[in-house]
UniProtKB/TrEMBL annotation:
InterPro entries: HAMP_dom, HATPase_C_sf, HATPase_dom, His_kinase_dom, HisK_dim/P_dom, HisK_dim/P_sf, Sig_transdc_His_kin-like_C, TCS_sensor_his_kinase. This is histidine kinase. It catalyses: ATP + protein L-histidine = ADP + protein N-phospho-L-histidine. It comes from Microbispora corallina. It is found in: Cell membrane.
Amino acid sequence: MCPRSLQMRAALSSALASLAVFTVLGIAFDLGVRNKVETHLYLEAQRAATDWLASMRPGDVPRPTPMSRVDLLQLVDSRNRVVVSSTAAANRPALTAPLPPPEDRIQYRTECSPDGGCVVLVALRVLPFQTGLIWGGETHAVYAGRAQPAILATHRLELGTAAGVLLAAGLWGWGNWYRTGRTLRPVAEIRAKMSEITVSDLSMRVPQPSGCDEIAELARTANQTLARLETAVGQQRLFASVVSHELKSPLTGLRASLEEALLYRDEVDPHETIEAALETTDRFKAIIDDILMLAHLRTAEPVKPEPVDLGLLVEQETARTRGVPVLADAAPDLTVLGNRIQLVGALTNLIVNAQRHARSVVRVTVEQDGGEAVVTVLDDGDGIALEDRERVFEPFVRLQDGRRRDPKGTGLGLAISRAVAGAHEGTLRVEDSPRGARFVLRLPLCRAARQVQKEPAA
């Protein structure tokens, strides 16, 4: 069964790969050592043979006196009979056979006897002019060698090399296991901390290692995600709390009026009670519709955008308004990509809000500012205090003047308008104005509209 631990898998894979590499290196090392030792032995034996041969004179063939570890020296005749030998080679038959041929005078041989001993030797055929001077032309040869050393005669080298290969592969695997463990330690800490985080407490953060590697980026991304999640859950909790409060008040009033109608049937007009209940349910429906709209904008998948002529859209919507006059001044051919229904809803909310607070007139302008279409909704009312300019976009937030002018409002219109702006990669803010409240909606123009607007300037 394959180990499940990533650390163990990495260490095992590394150990197997290193074992293959070290095995190849071990074989190469073994062969290299053997070749080096044999080459040294052959050269040493050849030197001993040539030195002994150089000391021979006609009628005088001295007994060799080994000056090195090459102690087996023999002079043999043409029938491979030993003529003279060193003390160590006395009473031994010829070390090898046959004699080297004339075309290959020097041969390196390893001869092994039945008893298991092996000799590393050089067979040197004497040159013809030397045989003529010393032996009257009879072929002779010199054998020089020594017993095969233990490093070649046994498997010690192979066993030592195999042990070294296994040890090196084991150390390499352990080192990789240790390094992988150190690398994955932050991941284990992140996992442990993530397991402690619950919905009830999203303030915890995973440990974030220093540096810019992938694990540090993972920790940073996890903390950013947790921060966004904490903010979203906090907003949802606040939203749920506000929604429950907004629904609880009219629901309590509805229940009280119905109970009163049941308890005091002779004193309470049932038709009035039913009419009041219908008004309350209409308010419920308005609040629920706005809540669903706001939730849809925040969580739903974006629909495929379509080109929308923003100037034409503003002119059409302002033409449908009733009550306080709305004057529109829209530049032509300002096209944005978006959801037409959502944009209509956002514009309607802004215009209705402006009419609610205006004294005599509302002005709506549409113009281009760089790569953006800018919609400005300006009323001539009392305006919005600087500290309230962001609060008005929060769900269910209604300033005192707004509650007085429209007691039945839900307080979600501006929040929906800002959500629509955000869904279209735009912005909605309250900006400074000499008089009244000035709401500014900025939406990016589509690429074709930008090109059209640039051509006349060129």
